[in-house]
Amino acid sequence: MPIFVKRLLAALVIVLLLIAMNEYMSEQGLFGFGVPPYYARVIMLAGINIILAVSLNLITGFTGQFSIGHAGFMAVGAYTSAYLTVYYAQAWERSLAGMIGTGLAHALIFLLAILVGALAAALAGLVVGIPSLRLRGDYLAIVTLGFAEIIRIVILNIDQVGGATGFTVPAYTNFLWVGAFAVVTIIIVYNIVHSDIGRALVSIREDELAAEAMGINTTQYKVLSFVISSALAGMAGVLFGHYTSFLSTNDFQFIRSFEIIIMIVLGGMGSLTGAVLGAIVITIMPELLRQLPGDFSKYRLVVYSALLIIIMLTRPQGILGTREFGLSWLKRAPKRPEGDKPAGEKGVSIAEQGPPSAIDQKKEMENR
Amino acid sequence: MKRLLISLGIIASFVFALACERKGGPGAGGNSGPIVIGYYGDLSGRTSNFGQSTKNGVEMAADEINKAGGIDGRQITILSEDDEGRPEKAATVVTKLIDQDRVVALLGEVASGNTLAAAPKAQAARVPMISPSSTNPAVTQVGDYISRVCFIDPFQGDVMAKFAANTLKAKKAAIMLDFNSPYSRGLTEFFEASFKKLGGEIVDKQSYTQGDRDYKGQLTAIRSKNPDVIYVPGYYGEVGVIAKQAKQLDIKAPMLGGDGWDSTQLWDLGGDALNGDYISNHYSVDDPSPAIQKFVADYKARYGNVPDALAALGYDAMKVLADAIKRAGTTEEPQLKDAIAATKDFAGVTGTISLDKDRNAVKPAVVLKLQDKKYIYVETIYPEGMTAPATAVTPVAAPSTSTSPAAAPATSPARPGTTASPAKAASPAAGTRSTASPS
Amino acid sequence: MDTFVQQLINGLTIGAIYALIALGYTMVYGILRLINFAHGDIYMVGAFVGYFMAFQLGFAAGPSLMGLSVVLIGSMIAAALVGMAIERFAYRPIRKYARMTTLITAIGVSLLIENLFVARLGAAPRAFPQLLQEKSYTLFGNAAISKSQILIFAVSVALMLLLQWVIFKTKVGTAMRAVSFNLNSAKLMGINTDFIISFTFALGSALAAAGGVLTAQYNPQIDPLMGIITGLKAFVAAVLGGIGNIPGAVLGGLLIGIAETFVVGYGQNVGVPTTFRDAVAFAILILVLLFRPTGLLGSTVQEKV
How far is residue B154's CA from residue B280's CA, in Å, rounded to a whole number? Predict the structure, then answer.
């Protein structure tokens, strides 16, 4: 089969699956069966977290730039698009609906909102990125954290978007949107990572000086990956805001940025499937722990943080390390030892050597 | 290939495990078996002291009802979930309580932001929700299944403004608000508007956020403006320290606050610095009325500390709900919702509660003076449309506030079967009144 | 003018506390290149140890200098032990791994301490007993300084001088500097690096605990989450001064304290609403780092290839 037919088929299967899942998770259910609303909600939030984790992985996992301000970009996307949908969208939707029908108008408006949110977040990413990417390591980390806090405090001061009380926005998001954009995000990041841009990004992560010496414009690439990453986070913010249909700055405190970092480190930095896995684990774990019996349930978050530490202590490179989990892994005979891949396998080749820290550590020692 | 098949199998079984048959509407109603009620609140986050207090009040009320034989012989079960003080989680746990635990009604949240996030879920699933202490007006506008037992920001802000302007004859007020708290901002907004309308002037407005360690910067700025009163609509944790630091800076103007001040911890934190300050509240723990004293004593025996306003409101929310279930005679949601909305002159600990057409509690507020670790009754201020009962002897209050006496019936005696004394809210602390009346 | 002096005093007080906590961040970073996110919680632990000691030992009854010093020193020792335990059990096993891993572990430890305290003690603020007879001294005009503020200045200056002495005049201090310069070479020189790292955590934690007890005298409200914001600002102070640099941490702390207070006091005159107070620390940090990427006193490290 020619490659494009294969891809077309794959896309078709994914779309059909998403539509079926969407029905399955909706209020009516599919053929009378459906996912209970609580599970559906957790799945939706996991989907949004996947977008966040995968997008952060681009800048932190693949480019090696330590950003802990992702919640800020998410907030920018969420609030900008919510401003649009709350104050303008209904009028537009009505005038559009006459021409192309309600459903399509609805979808178009929301698509526009997502684009606007992503653009606004990208712009914020550019504004933050250009000056701060001169900084290295922990300095960059604290500056991104600072920007996220400043964004939050600025939003808190804008009464048009609810200030401290919160902002009620229309609920547009359903599983189709989240699933589709999670897939799109993964494809975008996958393609970037496996293009020559991706090579440049990884080389920056491995050794910035050497990359520069090889003629890579490190600043340009860093800003690029930062902007893309922010845009995707903004998109996740739009989906989040229009799913919870209530925006409050309390949902964008730095603990959320931490959570996203935890997802990618837990899953394995520099692994796409790892980020997906981490997002799912971190979304579901606190909910599962609600099942703790009786009096013990007040230790829910204690158990959660203890588990976090234990996972980091026992698997410091994350659950997947830099490996990827995919169809090729599934097809492989189970006997074969881990990490040993069939030759000519593509897609898994980023930094396959040793513990991920080896180079990091070496560089550090020299820096002292 | 084997792996692929196994994985597909796992995924498929996972998806089917998730499936459940869809039934029309929530399946929680019915008229037999225990009554399951959901409580959600912050039990682990920054505001978890509020969530915990409310939970204590709710559970105590439920236990009292159960000990007295339940509602029509049915026992109450309270299921509590922690939302970590995050709006996103609030909506998640409410979904869980409705969907997994099939609760017939919900009680919660303290913070308006979290209630606003969760209320649409309850409204969509048609499960009645009573918020014990979310004061933002928007909360009950979510829909007809949402109600509350506390007064709303406009009323409380108004009460203090009137008290400051009319009773204390203040001309210049400064405000120090908790900027992150919708409660504090709501009170500020309405205090400001009302105080200006009464001819006063707001000379300075400063803000802090929960978790700050130092307030002297703001207080120094306020001091340089020389206000007659300082309005601090915050929570006790910060307020006690603010009072103390104000005294260290030699600020003489009295501070005014809201029900967020009500806690015994306030005295530990602020000590003597609080003397001479005033708060608006639902009731006074030092009120000699037997119903209140019984509540305070029971709470103390059970939890080891004096209840704060949030515990009292949680207690009342549970009692109002139980009363509505009793009156409805069923836990079917639509009837229950109507019964809650019809709550009238319910004698709660925090005052006589009636719900208006927007399902907001209409009840009088009391102004208390803080003196030597006691809340001393000063006056009762009635909401518009509610008159002072004839029995109330209010030396300084009322005439300015009850503008439309004809609009609503006067407080009627409490229904038989409830323990509260008639018109209790109007005459708290009869014993301390004479000492407390401002000259 | 007296308002200005008053604001300066207020700012320096809060700045001194930030500085005490920032020292711990900066020392640990200097040695391990680790942002110890749990450090803010050590500050909280210190305050709580002091709280329980004061009640257990009966010092809560009334102010006494004796009580204050016992509580202060006791909580410093306890916090030092906690800091050492955290290092031993959470950080040492993964020291050789990527910094991201240690960072997440640090966040995990921080969450664990906070959640454990909330679950055990509840998040309700508690009132720290008054161990110091509070008294205000009028300087001139309206400007006043309270006894607790004087205490904060005195103790923090004393502790900073002591720290300076430890680092530059003692054998352990020399070893600390060697480890911070190059961990592996230090090891080759026969320095017991594990011990030195442990010692650094103890030192930093003790300082944070002192900060905790001192603020509790100034602002008696303590709660299990008090370390989050204060810790974050102290961390910002450490980065502002140049992380890894000890005088820098002190300078950063004082600067942030003063800046915050002045935004509150004078921000409105120049169009900055006081509600932006919490953003100011970050704004200053960002501005400074744009011009001095390694902080105010940080040395520019030339990266070797």
Answer: 13
